[in-house]
């Protein structure tokens, strides 16, 4: 169903791809937009239990796209180091394919937004975080992406560097 990566040597192990999703703070969500044009928008997100969560307003382009077709892709760039003398970049990224749904269960929404708030404001107290969530809760729309497929890839130079390090320890 999903394409196999052409440059298999650059494929990140699943654990590495998940680690990138866990530590990342922003990515680009792509949906089918107006007149079937792709619509890609940067978002802050949370990866939790093989799902991606994000919040926003209760109306807008991305929600219209999700309601039209719930199949989405989501990309996170972990590294993008330009190496001008070699005319390349040393990159590491992850692409997720999945199905998005607008969450409706209030308990699930509260749980997801609480975990997201802990990620982005870990120094806040429980009381402070709960007050902030309550303040905006009625205007809040939470979206959950159930992941169907994850692919991580890195520059061949990074693969070679890791292999050199591993070979030095054996």
Can you tell me about this structure?
The chain is an alpha+beta fold and 170 residues long. It has a single domain, classed as Roll (Pnp Oxidase, Chain A). It contains 5 helices and 7 strands; from the N terminus they run αββββαββααβα. Strands 2-1-5-6-7-4-3 form a 7-stranded antiparallel beta sheet, with helices on both faces. The longest helix has 15 residues. The chain starts with 13 loop residues before the first helix and ends with a helix.
Question: Topology of this protein?
Answer:
Layout: H1 14-23, E1 26-32, E2 38-44, E3 46-48, E4 51-56, H2 61-68, E5 71-83, E6 88-102, H3 106-120, H4 126-136, E7 141-154, H5 156-168
Antiparallel strand pairs: 1-2, 1-5, 3-4, 4-7, 5-6, 6-7
CATH superfamily: Electron Transport, Fmn-binding Protein, Chain A
Q: What's the oligomerization state?
A: single chain
Q: How large is the count of helical segments?
A: 5
On the 0 to 100 scale, the average pLDDT is 90
Question: Roughly what percent helix?
Answer: 25-40%
Low-confidence stretches: none
Cα gyration radius (Å)? 18 Å
| CATH fold-level assignment | Pnp Oxidase, Chain A
Going by CATH, the architecture would be Roll
Q: How much β-strand is present in the residues? A: 35-45%
Strand order of the largest sheet: 2-1-5-6-7-4-3
How many separate domains?
1
Give me the secondary-structure category: alpha+beta
- Biggest sheet, open or closed, and with what strands and sense? 7 strands, antiparallel
Q: Helix-strand pattern, N to C?
A: HEEEEHEEHHEH
């Amino acid at each position: 169903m999903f394409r196999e990566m052409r440059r298999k040597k650059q494929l990140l192990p699943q654990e590495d791809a998940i680690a990138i999703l866990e530590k990342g703070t922003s990515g680009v969500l792509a949906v089918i937009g107006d007149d079937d044009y792709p619509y890609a928008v940067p978002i802050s997100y949370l990866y939790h239990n093989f799902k991606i969560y994000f919040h926003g307003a209760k109306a807008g382009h991305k929600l219209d796209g999700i309601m039209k077709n719930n199949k989405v892709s989501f990309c996170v760039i972990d590294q993008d180091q330009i190496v001008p003398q070699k005319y390349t970049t040393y990159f590491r990224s992850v692409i997720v394919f999945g199905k998005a749904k607008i969450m409706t269960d209030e308990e699930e929404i509260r749980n997801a937004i609480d975990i997201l708030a802990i990620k982005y404001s870990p120094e806040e107290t429980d009381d402070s975080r709960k007050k902030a969530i309550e303040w905006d809760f009625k205007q809040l729309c939470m979206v959950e992406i159930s992941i169907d497929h994850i692919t991580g890839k890195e520059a061949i130079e990074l693969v070679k560097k890791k292999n050199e390090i591993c070979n030095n320890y054996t």
